[in-house]
Amino acid sequence: MPTTDNETPDVSELTPPSRTLMGPGPSNTNPRVLRAMSTPLVGHLDPSFVEIMNDVQELLRYTFRTDNEWTIPVSGTGSAAMEAAIGNLVEPGDTMLVPTNGYFGDRMASMARRAGGTVVEVDAPWGEPLETPTVEDALETHDPDVFGFVHAETSTGVLQPNVPELTAVAHEHDALVIADTVTSLGGVELRVDEWDIDVAYAGPQKCLSCPPGASPLTLSDEAMEKVLSREQAPRSWYLDLSLLEGYWGDERAYHHTAPITNVYALREALRLVAEEGIESRWDRHERIAGALKAGVEGMGLEMNAPEEYWLPSLNAVQVPDGIDDSEVCETLLERYDLEIAGGLGDLSGEIFRIGCMGHSARAENVIFVVTALDDVLESLGADVDPGKGVTATRRSLATE
């Protein structure tokens, strides 16, 4: 019942459960990041906070592997960074080429339409990457202003393998390239400058293991030139990069009150990336996720993506015959305080999505998830080989 003006709400102390987060995000947060969030607030224009802003931008450049001046955390979740990228690059009357091979390509299309753009598609089945000749044909046919692709498709567990080829053919047709790197930044190889990506956006809660709220975005000079030369202002005032440039650029002029605590958290999460070394971090994700992959295959399950475009940070595992994926996910949560997820869109009910990201990408976690998944599947009558998954996981970890 709603309270009246004379009643005081009776709300208990905040005590959420302690979960092991091995789903598609968020991942578990490093204790150092949580401590950073308890740091006292300062004003969003305080000189000390300006120094923190500078640190975050430099650390983001390191993690994106870019020298782009226009590299910032957008105030909001990864979807805010996504909408900032598309809503600023796509003007009314522009054409954007988007993929059909996953849930987040569909989201790109939705945002481009809301920005006033015309959407055309490059076709690829769900669970497969884009092929260069197919993209080139679509570019020749539609002559888009912007081409978007998903580097690490969270809905299918597919890593796009031929990014430099895609950006090259897009630029031959004078299209700017936007890359969704939400599930790849800080977890799998990503080289924005070397691969000639014009715009990349990400979410902090995936491989960076940072609470959502300040989301990475980087733009090349060519992309920012398009933003600053628009004939019409973007439809979102809040995400207008020509205005945000005044706050994150040299002026540090007021635009909005930044999520100060989230920026503290992102700075510490990125410091952890730099301390580990970005290439070592990529290697860790591949090694630990490889042990997870060995474990699920050892118990008799199949991966959704073939080896050549397997995504270490998000492992799509086929659901065994006769098993309800939602029942498995619910049982893991209730019995083990362990979170994984089922499929989205065309793969709903067909796959488990098991993350191996950031602070969650540790040996003890993959042993735990393989053990728990084996137990729950066996208890629900799945055709699995009890114990073989854990043995395969341990052997994989021991060989590294």
TrEMBL record:
Coiled coil: none annotated. This is Alanine-glyoxylate aminotransferase apoenzyme. It holds the Pfam family Aminotran_5. InterPro entries: Aminotrans_V_dom, PyrdxlP-dep_Trfase, PyrdxlP-dep_Trfase_major, PyrdxlP-dep_Trfase_small, SP_NH2Trfase/AEP_transaminase. Belongs to the class-V pyridoxal-phosphate-dependent aminotransferase family. SUPFAM superfamilies: PLP-dependent transferases. Residues 42-342 form the Aminotransferase class V domain. GO terms for biological process: glycine biosynthetic process, by transamination of glyoxylate. Keywords: Aminotransferase, Pyridoxal phosphate, Transferase. GO terms for molecular function: alanine-glyoxylate transaminase activity; L-serine-pyruvate transaminase activity. Residues 1-31 are annotated as: Disordered. Transmembrane segments: none annotated. The keyword Manganese does not apply. Its cofactor is pyridoxal 5'-phosphate. The keyword rRNA processing does not apply.
